[in-house]
Amino acid sequence: MIEMMRVDDRLIHGQVALLWTKQLGLDRIIVANDKAAASDIQKNALLLAAPAKVKVAIVPVKKAIAMANDPRGARFKMLVLVNNVNDLYQIVQQVDPGDTKVDIANVGRVSGDIENKHKINETVYLNDEELAQVKEINTLAKNFVYQPLPTDSPKPFASLLKGE
Amino acid sequence: MLLYQAFIIALFVAWGKWIGAYGSFGQVMPFFFTPILALLLGKDPVNALMIDAAIALAFYGVMQIGAVLPQDTGFGGALGLGFALILNQKPAIGVALAVPISMLAVVVWNLLKFWFTTNVEIFDRYIDQRNLRKFNRLWWIQMGVYIFTYFILAFLAVLLGTHGIKAFVTSIPKPLLSGLTVAAGMLPAVGMGMLLKFVWNIEFLPFFIAGFVLAAYLKLPIMAISLFGVVFGLVMFFIDRHINEVKKSNSLSTTNNVNSDDEGDFFND
Amino acid sequence: MTDAQAAPQKDNNLQLNADEKKLTKRLFWRNMWLGFNMSYTRQQGVAWDWIHAPIYKKIYKDDPDKFWEAMKRNMEFYNTTPNMNGIVSGLAVSMEQENAKAPAGTFDTAGISGMKIGLMGPMAGIGDTFFAGVWGLILAGIGISFAKAGNMAVLLVSVIGLIPNIAVRWYGQKYSYKLGSKYIAKAVQDGLMTMFTKATSIVGVTVVGGMIATLVKFPLVFKTKINGNVFALQKVFDQIMPSLLPLALSVICFVLLRKGKNPVLVLVGVVLLGFILTFLGITGA
To answer: Which of A54, B110, C107, C231 is deepest in the core (most CB within 10 A)?
Structure first.
């Protein structure tokens, strides 16, 4: 089953790879990203960052949705990883999140014009469209939080949106 | 005369700091610059090598463990060697000076690194301001301060400390000196312990015993023991590779799924 | 084959064209600086940026936005064995070039960070074991045995010592730049890196075993007469096993360090032991 759906600018990197894998006891990671899936270089780089015993699939978002809904996934502990809110929005619409933790950790600082984005907090910046999507996600996911590291206490994401 | 000696030793220390980090060359060039220092100081290069060998032994195997750098062996070693040379002292005196100096000098590095850390924020700011010139300038200021700090410390230590150290070493009573020599001979044990801690795995016990026996009973030189080590390493490497291949052919593919079009063995064990 | 002929086919071709040659040479020399200006928070992050700034400038020469974006992106935490950095650096530069060539928005630069973070660990694992541990250890050991005898042949040790350092820096960078991530990713995943580190550690452990017997000194001078026979302590220990006490002392140091005792305390302890035993007349110079 899916243990967590997570938005992180850098997809798999040191934090995700080691801390979350330990915390959640992961054995599978689905990286849902159209660009990464199309590039061998990026795919290899992401595989390098993955912990040794975890199997990783780097697939386009559409394929990731199919895999997340695949009944064979029930016996694994899986993490679905995206690097932008739009991808998460698509996934949450087509994969019922139920009680699964949906976590927006780092997004918006790496690409795009940060001046025109709403600063939600230090690590999350959203544009208007993304803000609307986040609000929709909030109605779909029961356990929608902000939690960069397992050691951070999870904050309900809705509590960060006050005033937006 | 002392001014000249202080300058040369300070230069040697600064050079050591430079070559120690530049390309990590210092790590693979033991004793290379020792005879040059001796010649510049007008001393016997062969004797200098012997002093430096005693110091290197005392530091043998010392390496950083976790966040703790126990000794600044470069700075301490260079000053110990320098003092022993200009005071025409025995190797044991060089060791006696090098070890405490190396332990004190760690403080200097910690302070420098602390300053570098506070500067990171400024480097970040220069990037935000898109100012490569200022970025490079701060880099070179840090470089300069780093090298110059050690230069000036060594220079002052020799200039101001030589008389005191001379009085100290000539007043060392004989039993203390032999105690010093014995302690210097035992010190490599600490370095050996550090190295073992760094690479240890209980599976390596047979190789450790083999190395010890080859030296203790068969009296083989280090070179020969190193070659035996290479033999052991290669044998284990090929065994591991074989095991790995067998494992792989059993499960067809244990590597991560690289294919983007289908899920490959993602749902297999 | 001329450079012009080699230029068009980049893949599976180790020949560098003139531009690439210039770039990799520059990068090789810049990479010598990775050990300087470390900080607690980013370790070699600032040095990485300083090293690559002129390279990035060349790669993104028409696009200052992308250049500064690359500078900002690469200021992140980075820490590996400097000798091994050519491999990561060559790969990172080839990825930045892909990024520069790719139409806007089609290359995800997160992959570059991912690669650096993914590789720095395994590279440091091998590099520290090989360069700091085994190679430095053997060189110093041979150097000491020459220097103790005042033998100038010790100068040759450095020449030999430099060979793997330079070779790993140059060829590591060149191959990773030309062949790309696929081969290195495969080596990491196949466990080749772990196997190599293990083999290197075995060389190290063997040499340490030998070094303990030859380099650690525990000279016993205590002698007494029992029933008219001379009883020399050193002889007794030698009959049990040669170099028994150096072995015991080293193992005790190892156990203390492994238990997390401060290395400085262990060192002071050994010095005190040497002094006390000498004053008691048990050991001596």
So the answer is: C107
